[in-house]
Amino acid sequence: MELEIRDVSKTYANGVHALKDINLTISKGMFGLLGPNGAGKSSIMRTIATLQTPDSGKIYFDGQDIFATPAEFRRQLGYLPQDFGVYANASATDMLDYFARLKGIHNAKERKNRINELLELVNLTEHCHKAVDTYSGGMRQRFGIAQVLLTNPKVIIVDEPTAGLDPAERNRFYSILHQLTDSAIVILSTHIVGDVTNLCDDMGILNQGTLLSRGKPDELVASI
Ligand code: ADP
Ligand code: ADP
Fold it and tell me: Which of 109, 111, 137, 218 gives a 20 to 30 Å CA spacing to 198?
């Protein structure tokens, strides 16, 4: 399982060079993208999620150009944007059921089993009948991960998932993420150095649209 980002650049209509010739190969496990606000983390993640196209460069998943057949790639992708679930005025169970139908899980029993299993995984079983917009930030992010996992994605992208969470909620969220790394590429963005050192197998440092360095968290962080 491998995601290859080759010579990817992006300039927005306002002239901001958000991504400058990014080259990066990411394998199974947890990859941390560390960088300050405005570094380009969301830009690279939206690009991998095929929500925007690069001006130049390519991205391959297991050798396949993701922009050649984006619908096919999206079936293998889970993307959790920032501030997820703030406006969801329905229960977690109903929301998950809705998305499971959308994603083509047509068998009601199969849907129910999968949803119950995911609610257990993210520790929301006892809150599953409450409206998601009444959840705390941490609960919303855990709900978001459950939604992302409905279709067993092979590439999971989470954009600053712990912004605004307290340390206990953050650890809880990360321990759930960690359970996914056996079977997926998990890409996490953060501006918190400790998050990548504690959690990630591999990392990159992004600043002003440029990948400054990549490697093992222990080695890289020592050099900052
Ligand atoms: P990060 O996620 O690291 O905070 P972003 O990828 O959001 O970084 O932003 C990188 C730069 O691109 C910033 O200067 C930001 O203002 C700009 N930017 C991001 N999205 C857009 C957009 N849709 N249109 C114009 N500029 C954008
Ligand atoms: P963050 O910097 O916190 O990661 P995002 O880059 O995800 O935030 O920005 C949130 C939304 O605002 C996105 O849809 C993005 O395209 C848009 N956006 C961000 N910066 C700009 C900008 N400078 N000009 C126009 N749109 C922007």
Answer: 137
